[in-house]
Write a structure and sequence with these properties.
The structure is a single chain. By secondary structure, the protein is α/β, with parallel strands linked by helices. The chain has one domain (6-160): SPOUT methyltransferase, trefoil knot domain (Alpha/beta knot, 3-Layer(aba) Sandwich), CATH 3.40.1280. It contains 5 helices and 7 strands; from the N terminus they run βαβαβαβββαβα. The chain has helices at residues 21-34, 51-57, 72-78, 119-124, 143-160; strands at residues 11-16, 38-41, 66-69, 86-89, 95-96, 106-110, 127-130. A 7-stranded parallel β-sheet has the order 3-2-1-6-4-7-5.
Length: 162
């Protein structure tokens, strides 16, 4: 585990109660590639030693800057002052993520594959965004796809403006 300071990074990815190891492994790989800290808030639906988690992350785990928290209260107590803006990605949001102006220091929150973000997390977030989908019969995208889409749009905005 890497100990990082929040001000050193333009964005953070936060997974709240992820359940599927390969999704988290893929997200870890994306975070490693972009040098984006990954926060894992439990309870997790797997052990960090899970072979599927490791396989999905390939040999990039040494490059993943991550931190785990047993639960929401542990996460919030680690960051008692709101640091940057907390941005929830949820299919129920009214604002489309590409219409949102991301800023340096934003924290991107994504929920469990089965239940989404808990209400306590949604209430703590400054904004709620959705990723639009054309087919109304599809409720949501895969978690690792959603993180990649959201993270890369935020990065595109931040680095395009420089």
């Amino acid at each position: 585990m890497y100990d990082f300071c929040h001000t050193d990074f333009p964005l953070h990815v936060v997974l709240v109660q992820p359940q599927i190891p390969p999704n988290t492994g893929n997200i870890a790989r994306t975070c490693a590639a972009t040098r984006t800290p990954l926060h894992l808030i439990g309870p997790l639906g797997f052990e960090l030693s899970d072979r599927y988690l490791k396989r999905a992350g390939l040999d990039y785990w040494p490059y993943v800057l991550y931190r785990t928290y047993p639960d929401w209260l542990s996460f919030v107590s680690t960051y008692p002052q709101v640091i940057g803006r907390w941005i929830a990605f949820t299919p129920r949001a009214q604002v489309c993520f590409w219409d949102y102006q991301f800023q340096w220091g934003d924290w991107l929150f994504f929920g469990s594959e089965t239940t989404g973000l808990p209400e306590v997390c949604l209430q703590a977030c400054h904004a709620h965004l959705h990723i639009p989908m054309v087919e109304p019969g599809v409720r949501s995208l895969n978690l690792s796809v959603s993180v990649a889409v959201g993270l890369f749009e935020a990065r595109r905005q931040l680095y395009h403006m420089k």
